[in-house]
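In full, the data:

***
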Amino acid sequence: MNGHRESTEKGSALSSDSVRRVTQYQAAGTNAWLKLFVLLEAQGVPAAETDDLVAALEAGAVAGAVAGGQCEVVELDGMAPASSDPVCADGWDEGVMAVSEALVGIADRDWSRRGERAGRGR
């Protein structure tokens, strides 16, 4: 792969709109997921095993993004703007922790979905 272009639909440029870009990434991920199931099924790999592999890849990808993102988010702990009052600073830190926990929750949710996808898309 060579960057973002191959991670989305071939021949389509990434949108400058972040919401649209997420949709493009989701579509590319779904297409890759379906292709993996078809290719591995053709090689005789049981759907349940393929599902476990896909779940591990998804959780690992999310965990990698979480690790990077969580590090960046956690670095914001205690970094409320200097002009903030103590209540704002406390809210800032609580927000940092909420985002950090939400990122981990995404990886947890992807991992827990193992076995649910094997019958989809065929």
